Amino acid sequence: MATLTTVGLIIDALLALGLMGLAWRVLANPDLFKAIVLFIAFGLVMALSWVRLEAPDIALAEAAIGAGLTGALLLGAFAKLRNAQTVAAVETSGTAHGTAHGIRSIALLIFILLLATGLGYVVWSLPAEDIGLSDAVAAHLDTSGVSNPVTAVLLNFRGYDTLLEMMVLLLALLGVWSLGDTAVHRESAPDPVLDTLSRTLTPLLILVAAYLLWAGAHAPGGAFQAGAVLAAAGVLLLLTGWRLPAALAAQPLRLVLVAGPAIFLALAVVTLLMEGRLLQFPPAWAGRLILVIETAATISIGVTLVALFRGAPPADEDRQ
Amino acid sequence: MIDYLTFVLLIGGGGFFLAGTVGLVRFPDVYSRLHALTKADNVGLGLMVAGLAVQAESWAVVGKLLLIWMLVLLAGASVSYLVAQGALQRRIRPWQR
Fold first, then answer.
1. String of b and e for A114-126 (b: at least 16 CB within 10 Å)?
2. pTM attached to this predicted model
3. Is B24 part of a structural domain of the chain?
4. Statement: residue A274 has pLDDT above 70
5. Cβ proximity of B38 and B75 under 8 Å
6. B94 lies in a domain?
7. φ, ψ (nearest 5 deg) of residue A283
């Protein structure tokens, strides 16, 4: 047992050092493309760290959203930057030299030192053994409708946080769409290998998303993870040249995008009127209500993330 | 006995990953680096999956381990093809002595 603990300690130390090293390389690398690839690696090491901290829910979310989809979004943005030939401008703007630069970095150093001291003091003054609100959650778990404490917190006890998160995601998409970006609609014959890969993986990814959604009630999983896996299938399809049929691109797409937040919001209003409090589910109904919210949320989150990756709203492409 | 088998398989898998990583760092061009990388992924992970599968308590676990290996094989083979294809389109010549 003692050797196992030592091995665990070594792995933890390597993970921590690797995280800091990767974070430094991401920020210091003048090459944007390399920085993005390093950022994806950072996300994967971060997911491993969450596994070591026994937080599989966060590990899943970090791997799927933090490393996978954010990586895809960054690479997509990089490709657009390269098309606009502004990467060179971005990359050279960071290498300005002079006295102002020196003063700025000294001020920055002092600020970072103060921040690190403050953070260190706060962490140091935390009680060594603090289980936080775990006991309170465990005591009320049977009224939440699910047996996974993380889902109970996210969808029931602190449901409004998740509601607001979904709104933020929708707002982000509105922001991207309102930029009026016109993505070049390139029809290209899909590469046979990529085509086969996407045809094999897409059904599997949909199955995994459904499993994650269903498992969220009693095991690590849930709407955000399932939505991210669904979005991975969508991104893969987009990369093979697949485009949403024009008949679905205008109204149906927008309906699907708002379905999750809308159902969530509607239930919030109904519970406010019936129970007197926002998102206070009656225990007998809680399990079913959470499943309804999570199903709608999964689909909306998945489609929203794919739309974010696509960039321009599909209806505008047809007009061009 | 089974523990020794696991030990040998895991160490063997680790050896392939190490060799693959060294190849990725040291090989001269993108094509030979892909070669090193896919060997590590395919065989190294295969050995690791085999080492873990003999320890598994049920066939369901063995099935899941095999599924993971198959998915990595599929993704690894496709992605290395795509990377090589991209390199060819950019007219990167294979390294020659």
1. eeeeeeeeeeeee
2. 0.82
3. yes
4. yes
5. no
6. no
7. -50, -35
In a domain, B95, yes or no: no
CB contact under 8 A, A201 and B74: yes
Overall domain count for chain B: 1
Q: Which residues of A touch B71 (CB under 8 A)?
A: 204
Contact between chains at B74 and A194 (C-beta distance less than 8 A): no
Q: Dump the DSSP string for A257-288.
A: HHHHHHHHHHHHHHHHHHHSSTT---HHHHHH
List, for residues A135-190, the tens digit of each pLDDT value: 788 877 877 778 888 888 888 888 888 889 899 999 999 988 888 665 555 556 67
Contacts of B78 in chain A (CB under 8 A): 193-194, 196-197
Residue A4, Cβ neighbours under 10 Å: how many?
A: 8
Strands (E), A12-169: none
Residue B60's domain spans which residues? 2-89
| Measured distance CA(A259)–CA(A301) in Å, rounded | 10
Scan for tokens 């090193």, then name that residue. B36
DSSP H stretches of helix in B27-97: 30-39, 45-53, 59-89
Beta strands (DSSP E) in A54-136 are none
Read off the pLDDT of each residue in A122-140 and give the average, rounded to a whole number: 79
Phi, psi of A241 (to 5 degrees): 100, 0
From chain B, pick out residues whose CB is under 8 angstroms from the CB of A197.
74-75, 78
The answer to whether residue B96 sits within a structural domain is: no
What whole-number distance in Å separates Cα of residue A223 and Cα of residue A300? 10
